[in-house]
Design brief:
It is built from 13 helices and 14 strands. The protein has about 400 residues and is an alpha/beta fold. The strands form two sheets. An eight-stranded mixed beta sheet has the order 3-4-5-2-6-7-1-8. Strand 4 and strand 5 form a beta hairpin.
Length: about 400
């Protein structure tokens, strides 16, 4: 028997938007709604549906048992290993397929076709835009399928941008519900959480309010202060920051420099690219200088073989912290701006953090090694170019001092 949906859940279920974004507090009933929508769509006509959580284990823990129970009256076959799948009968005697998958293996869905996708806990999905734009969105093209994005906020990251898509695209609709909007959760339980949790945590987890990520590395970054749309006219050095990758995304930033001001004009963010393919892209971009990750010597040799002006990036014991401080300083002084179209870099800036459990107390250590591919590329350029500028400034100071010593003093 289907679960009874409460009023706010029914509001979402009845809405006909192709892409729905649900920003909800804890215990609002996100999974219940997702299961009921999958059931209704799977029974109405033959369709292929994908339910995707951050990991396959989360997909199993969050939705598998509930789906198995709810689909029982129309269930034909269930597959529990190695993947999670349900085959169900439709009202006209056909069959529908529901797949449960983990975002960590999103590449495995490349080239498939779906009628409907549910993405659960979207805010926790790493490298979101590359997975959505390159893998999932194309799976909906032939079917003209739809998607429901469901999450509780986790800082101002890609989920925040998804919530604002309705402002520029008529196919999108956003919904915002707090935990109080679920009439089946006792109000006193939520009030107790409010009384015992830090206010920022309660606002994020129960009121679904966007808050700065705890332990955020680049607190200085602000969309209002540091984003731009059009590069100011002028003469610029064209610098490339490169973080190599294959299973993890490779990241290349096109950074323009003039008068000690950095403008991140373009980003390139791709999975599954060989060293040769990365080299071809960098070569085509005709950078004046490139600053690649020094820990991949074979990839650097590929760049040099293409006559690319590779500059040294020095990594030492404290190079990560030192580079982070240089980037922070550039944000504080207004010397670093980022084009609004660099959505993956912006997402990393708003997710890159120290251990969430200890927050700022961990800043003497390096941040968690996640959400940092483009940030590494940015750090290489900012760190090394600042070193060069510092050396030039010291040289100029020494020359000025010598000139003062040689110049006769006059009264």
């Amino acid at each position: 028997m289907a679960y009874a949906l409460h009023k706010k859940q029914m509001e979402v279920a009845k809405n006909q938007a192709r892409f729905k974004v649900l920003n909800c507090g804890r215990r609002w009933g996100k999974t219940t709604l997702a299961v009921e929508i999958m059931l209704m769509k799977a029974f109405a006509k033959p369709v292929r549906i994908a339910y995707i959580a951050p990991t396959i284990q989360q997909a199993r823990d969050i939705a598998f048992a509930m789906l198995k129970k709810e689909l029982q009256p129309i269930l034909i076959k269930v597959k529990e290993a190695p993947s999670l799948e349900f085959t169900v009968k439709t009202q006209d005697g056909g069959e529908s397929l529901i797949l449960l998958r983990g975002w960590e293996a999103i590449e495995n869905l490349r080239g498939q076709a779906f009628d409907f996708i549910i993405l659960d806990e979207v805010a926790s999905m790493r490298n979101f835009w590359i997975g959505w734009q390159e893998v999932l969105r194309p799976t909906l093209t032939d079917t003209k399928g739809g998607t429901m994005f469901v999450s509780t906020p986790k800082g101002y990251n890609h989920f925040y941008d998804l919530c604002n898509k309705e402002l520029t695209d008529k196919d999108w609709k956003s919904f915002h519900f707090s935990s109080y909007d679920n009439p089946f959760v006792p109000k006193e339980e939520i009030d107790n959480a409010k009384a015992t949790l830090p206010s920022e945590r309660f606002e994020q987890e129960y009121m679904a309010s966007f808050q700065k990520t705890a332990g955020l590395v680049y607190k200085e970054f602000s969309r209002e202060k540091h984003l731009y749309e059009t590069l100011p006219e002028g003469q610029y050095e064209k610098l490339g920051g490169i973080d190599f990758g294959f299973k993890n995304p490779a990241g290349v930033l096109d950074i323009r420099l003039a008068k000690e001001r950095f403008y991140v004009e373009e980003e390139w963010y791709k999975r599954g690219r060989t060293e040769e393919q990365i080299g071809d892209y960098v070569q085509a971009y005709k950078f004046d200088e490139v600053y690649p990750d020094p820990e991949n010597p074979s990839a650097i040799e590929v760049l040099r073989g293409k006559n690319i002006n590779v500059r040294e990036v020095v990594k030492g014991k404290d190079s990560v912290k030192s580079g982070i401080n240089k980037v922070r300083e550039a944000f504080i002084t207004g010397k670093l701006k980022i084009n609004k179209r660099c959505v993956n870099l912006i997402s990393e800036l708003e997710m890159y953090s120290y251990d969430d459990e200890v927050g700022d107390r961990n800043e003497n250590e390096n941040p968690i090694k996640a959400n940092d591919h483009l940030l590494d590329a940015l750090r290489y350029v900012i760190m090394m170019k600042n070193v060069g500028m510092d050396m030039e400034a010291e040289k100029a100071d020494r020359m000025l001092s010598r000139l003062k010593q040689l110049t006769p003093q006059t009264r």
